[in-house]
Structure formats: C-alpha cells, structure tokens
Design goal:
- The protein is of the alpha+beta class.
- It folds into 2 domains: 226 residues, no CATH class; 95 residues, no CATH class.
- It is built from 10 helices and 17 strands.
- The strands form 3 sheets. Strands 1, 2, 6, 7, 8, 9, 10, 11, 12 and 13 form a 10-stranded mixed β-sheet that branches. Strands 3, 4, 5 and 14 form a 4-stranded mixed β-sheet that branches.
- A hairpin with an 8-residue loop joins β3 and β4.
- α2 crosses α4 and α2 runs parallel beside α5.
- The longest helix is centred in the N-terminal third of the chain and has 23 residues.
- The termini are far apart.
C-alpha cells in the first residue's frame, strides 16, 4: 500500500484512505456521478462529461502572461486554495465544492493561469434576501451555487494577505465547460463540512501541502480522483443544468421533509441510501448515468426491458431516472419512501 504520509516544511500531514461511504456520498451529490476505481492503484473518476455534455464551472480569469509566470501562478493558486479551506468551511455550505487552478496554453506564446470552481450546490446555500448579483450564476449552476463560489473566492482573497501569497488581477468571471480550461489542478473536494484530498497522481513534493497543514489540517481523507467522461444512452438528456436541477429538487424536498418532521424511510430505502445501487445499474443498463449515485433514486423499483429485474434504489428517483430514460424500462413503480403522516 502506498505511504500516504506527507512530510512538509510545516510538519507531517497524514492522508488516510477515504471510506466507501464517503465516496458514495460524493457520488450521490455530484450531478454526473462517480466512476469507482477497480484497483487500489487506480484513481476514481469524478464525472465531468456524459456523452457530449460537459460539466460547467466559473473561472476567474487573470491577464495573459508568459509560460514561466503562468506555471508559478498555478502552484501559487494551489497554496491559496489550501489556505482558504477553513474560511470557506465557516460558511457551512452543504453542497460539493471542487476548487481548482487551471493552466492554459494559448496562441502566440500567451498563457493563462487562474481559478475555477465547480460546484454541486445544496439549495440551503441560497441565502434569503440575496440580491440579483448574489445569485447571478444560480440559473446556470443551481440554487446556491453563486454564494458557494463567491464565499470561496472571498476566502482566497482574505487569506492571500496573511499567507503572503499574491492573488492575480481578475479581468473576467465567466461560465466555462471543463475542457475549455486546459490543465486542471484539482487538489481538494469539499463535501459539506468534510474536506477530501483528491490529487492524482499524488505529488507529495508540492508546497501546497504545507499550506494545508498550516491551515489546520494535520489529517485528511484521501480519495484520488481524475476528471472522467462516460458515454451516454442515445436520445437522453445529459446537460449539466438538467442534472443539477433534478438533484436540487431532491435535496430541497429532503430538506423540507426534515423540517416538517416527516416519517423516515423504510429499512430497504435506508440501506439503499448508503449506496447500494449496483442492482439498479445492472438491471437498467444505466450504470454510466447512475454511476452509483446513491441518493438520486428513492424507493424505486426498476424493471429493465432486457433483464426484467427488480432493484431498490434511494431518494425520489423513480421519476428522476425513469422520465429521462423511458426507453430503458418496461415499468417503473415507486414502492416506499418518506412521507408526512399529519392528517
């Protein structure tokens, strides 16, 4: 097994393998899902593309520069991301944030190296009374996405002063698909209040680990990830915003149910919410879409046109899975789930 201890100038940072439950929680809350690794030496795939449809994020674009400066900014930005994590966590967002630095080789010897943020927001991140500017990207990235992005960008700006790390001038804030950003540096994934180290391959010699240690992280769960692309079934929608909307509706319904004190799910659904969706994927042939997204499909019994098998799956997804892919099923029937027993 690979030694995951990282010795830095600030001390020792311990990485421990992320648990399967931690990975399944990420898969459940990421709009395109996760491809789990099949061998210990392989990374997991955080899906950024299904068919021709890509994940979209917000980039903070700096002025163009020369290659040497762009490379220096790339590593500087990694350190800023690590340093900003505690301030971002103070906002207690419940969704997934993937803060990145990017490096893009442009024409005529010009290079660009800035920040990019990919988010899977939770509706709770959308604060009441937000101005129009405060929700400017929500219609493209989901309710609460703008606040998550602005809070992380604000954390970077704040820590740059104390850490003596410069922040490059931002000349544009733009919505961009993943492949438009060139090389992506993806050191961490934040899921709610949990920080996962996800860099792959693991570069222990890079200085940003020392900044993570100084920020208070002496131990982190490690789940190596790369951006992944999977094929999609024909004639089915895969657009990032469509997937975000479906996920957002589920999360909002769950939040409202908890507030109302609704009945809990039956044991089978509770077990399924832990990520037992393999049966569903095998039965329906939608493994590339579901990608073990525990939490997308609650109390659903799916019968494949081909296999004619049943599968239990979590979280109100009978319609979320069945309506976009009716050609893949002979029948879909909800069988259990949470509900309000008030008369």
């Amino acid at each position: 097994m690979e030694d995951l201890n990282i010795n830095t100038v600030a001390g020792n940072l311990e990485l421990v393998p992320a648990t399967l439950d931690e990975l399944k929680l990420v898969a459940a809350q990421w709009p395109m899902g996760v491809v789990f690794r099949q061998a210990e030496t392989e990374p997991n795939g955080l899906i950024f593309q299904v068919g021709e449809q890509e994940a979209y994020g917000i980039k903070l674009q700096p002025p163009d520069t020369d290659e040497r400066t762009a490379r220096a900014l790339y590593f500087n930005n990694l350190a800023l991301i690590a340093s900003a994590l505690p301030l971002y966590l103070e906002h207690q967002h419940q969704g997934i944030m993937v803060p990145c630095t990017y490096y893009k080789d442009k024409t005529d010897g010009r290079f660009e190296s800035g920040f990019a943020f990919f988010v899977s927001p939770h509706p709770a991140s959308k604060a009441a009374g937000q101005t129009k500017a405060g929700v400017v990207y929500d219609d493209k990235l989901g309710d609460g996405a703008s606040k998550m992005i602005f809070d992380f960008a604000g954390a970077i700006a704040k820590v740059s002063k104390g850490a003596n790390l410069p922040v490059n001038t931002v000349i544009g804030i733009d919505l961009r698909p993943r492949l438009a950003l060139g090389t992506l540096g993806m050191p961490f994934l934040v899921q709610g209040g949990k920080v996962l180290a996800i860099q792959h391959p693991l570069r222990k010699e890079q200085p940003f680990w020392a900044f993570a240690l100084r920020a208070g992280f002496s131990k982190l769960a490690y789940a190596p990830m790369i951006t992944a692309a999977v094929p999609g079934p024909p004639n089915a929608p895969h657009a990032w915003l469509d997937r975000v909307k479906i996920l957002s509706l589920r999360l909002r319904a769950e939040t409202e149910a908890h507030r109302a004190g609704s009945v809990g799910q039956c044991d089978r659904c509770t077990a399924a919410q832990r990520g037992w969706t393999v049966e569903l994927e095998q039965a329906s042939g939608l493994g590339d879409v579901a990608s073990d997204r525990a939490g997308d499909f609650q109390g659903a019994r799916a019968v494949s046109r081909n296999a004619r098998r049943e599968a239990i799956a979590p979280t109100r997804g009978t319609w979320g899975l069945g309506l976009p892919h009716p050609e893949r099923f002979a029948a879909l029937a909800p069988i259990c789930g949470g509900g309000d027993i008030a008369p």
